[in-house]
Amino acid sequence: MNNMLELTAISKQYPGGVQAVDQVSLTLKAGELGVLVGPSGCGKTTTLRMIAGLEKPDQGTIRIRGQAVDGQRPQDRDAAMMFQSSALFPWLSVAENLAFGLAKKNLDRRTHRSQIEAIARQLQLEDLLERKARTLSGGQRQRVALGRALLKEAAVLLMDEPLSSLDRQLRLQLQDEILRLCRQRGQTTLLVTHDQSEALNLADRLVVMNQGRIEQNDIPQRIVAQPATLFAAQFIGERPINLWTVRSAAPQSIFQPSQIVWPDGADTVVIGVRPQQLRARRLNSASGSEEAALMGEVVIERFHWTGAQRFGSGRLGGSPVEFSLPEGVNSQIGDRVVLSADASALHFFDPETGRRLSCTAIPVSE
């Protein structure tokens, strides 16, 4: 069975008419790591809880290893769940907490201990096995919780915001641990997060949710390069995408009509360009932008840093704009720069529906 997890049109409405999840369909193959990402209240945790059996869908079907599990109790489903809080027993040792992952297995004492020691080595917990859980740091507790879930050896591992309570350095370390262990064990995993950076780092398959529905379900590279909706374009990306609402019959002066293929039949469109794809140069520098589809002058009003990369911001075509600055250029607040972007960097969206209008093929490796 190649498909480990299949959701078919599952929906959930809470009292008061709140539609938490609306016709969500999703498939994860064996060994695939899927990530549900979206803002608070978008339905991602409710979806995870329905898979785990902690919530009952109003309609739709959930299958694990091809078997419908809708009527099964949580403990009878071939799934393990790791929560935002580690949910350990604080008065028990690390080894005793890990042992709960083996509770339903009929193992002799020697095999039981060897499996606990093996997962402890993989998670760098071997020196902590006799420590009480209450004495551990936040990162250590989450490692124990991960080990306990992995020891269950379930078909599907479900993780609900497992790293959100940790500081940035610990989050990055545990992201690497999760990725390494899931790859090593061939573990099919569905993880929920609101952190799009975490989602992009972890996902084989990225599922962007909004208001109970799936906005886009694809590999992360394609969601960045070809967002299917305006929401996906705005939510996913290292820096916020730049947007202009433009009439194709009379575009703003920053757009060069001869360089743009306008979507058929679209009178008004929303054009998006990611900051990383806007080139900035000094006014007096050599042009090289005659073939640009977008070009205009901007006064730098602010700087933003993302890691080692510096971005500037100002206003262009009546809208706020953010752009990357070349390395080694000592720009100052108040400097004027020329921004340009090629036609391939432009994304077109319908202002009414938010759907992508132009789907020009952008090479993306699977």
Question: What's the structural blueprint in terms of helices and strands?
Answer:
Blueprint: E1 3-14, E2 18-29, E3 33-37, H1 44-52, E4 59-64, E5 67-68, E6 79-82, H2 94-99, H3 109-122, H4 138-151, E7 156-160, H5 168-185, E8 188-193, H6 196-202, E9 205-210, E10 213-218, H7 220-225, H8 230-235, E11 242-247, E12 268-273, E13 279-282, E14 294-299, E15 302-306, E16 309-316, E17 319-324, E18 336-341, E19 347-349
Parallel strand pairs: 3-8, 3-9, 6-7, 7-8
Antiparallel strand pairs: 1-2, 1-4, 4-5, 9-10, 11-12, 12-19, 13-18, 14-18, 15-16, 16-17
Helix pairs in contact: 3-4, 4-5
Folded structure, characterized:
The structure is a single chain. The strands form five sheets. The protein has a six-stranded mixed β-sheet with strand order 6-7-8-3-9-10, sandwiched between helices. It has a four-stranded antiparallel β-sheet with strand order 2-1-4-5, covered by helices on one side. A three-stranded antiparallel β-sheet has the order 11-12-19, with no helix packed on it. The chain has 366 residues and is of the alpha+beta class. It folds into two domains: 3-227, P-loop containing nucleotide triphosphate hydrolases (Rossmann fold, 3-Layer(aba) Sandwich); 238-349, Nucleic acid-binding proteins (OB fold (Dihydrolipoamide Acetyltransferase, E2P)). Helices cover 22% and strands 31% of the residues. It has helices at 44-52, 94-99, 109-122, 138-151, 168-185, 196-202, 220-225, 230-235; strands spanning 3-14, 18-29, 33-37, 59-64, 67-68, 79-82, 156-160, 188-193, 205-210, 213-218, 242-247, 268-273, 279-282, 294-299, 302-306, 309-316, 319-324, 336-341, 347-349. It starts with a strand and ends in a 17-residue tail after the last strand. It comes from Holdemania filiformis. GO terms for molecular function: ABC-type ferric iron transporter activity; ATP binding; ATP hydrolysis activity. Residues 5-236 form the ABC transporter domain.
